[in-house]
Design goal:
Length: 157
């Protein structure tokens, strides 16, 4: 279970939601970290990426379910929204609206997601990302922890 969770929305130029990042401290963190450190680098990085994708999938699903019903393109942009990649420390992940094929850049959900989330002079806020992350953060951290614990079990055997 998580002890501390921090979620950050990264807003880019023209109010675009570039990504939403989260960090969590897991219970048993030092023991888990020691077990993971014993893994081969390739296995450790794969476990880290898999954990981030599992957590990101939970967050993206919750977010997608909270997008205003009439915005099908925004909902579609959150399919497969969790991404993870290799870094020097292991892996890094993000959850963000993705490009919807066939839409011009100005009509892409990432171009207006921040306006929906926070509102502007023409419309009130209709938050979906923040409530989704607040609701799903514990499940996301648990999903990541489960993946990492399975990887660490391989070391203990």
């Amino acid at each position: 279970m998580a002890r501390a969770v921090r979620i950050t929305n990264v807003i880019g130029r023209r109010g675009r939601v570039m990504s939403t990042k989260f960090q969590a401290t897991l219970e048993g963190g030092p023991e888990l970290a020691a077990a993971l450190a014993k893994l081969d680098d390739v296995v450790r990085v794969k476990a880290s990426k898999d954990a981030l994708l599992a957590a990101g999938g939970v967050l993206a699903d919750e977010w997608q379910g909270r997008v205003p019903v009439l915005d099908a393109n925004y909902q579609r942009s959150l399919e497969g929204a969790a991404k993870a990649g290799k870094t020097k420390a292991g892996a890094s992940g993000s959850v963000a609206p993705r490009k919807v094929p066939g839409l011009p850049d100005g009509d892409q959900p990432f171009a207006y997601a921040a306006r929906l989330e926070f509102g502007d002079a023409d419309r009130p806020a209709e938050p979906s990302a923040r409530p989704a992350f607040d609701t799903a953060q514990e499940r996301a951290v648990q999903a990541a922890g489960d993946v990492l614990a399975k990887a660490a079990e391989g070391v203990a055997r």
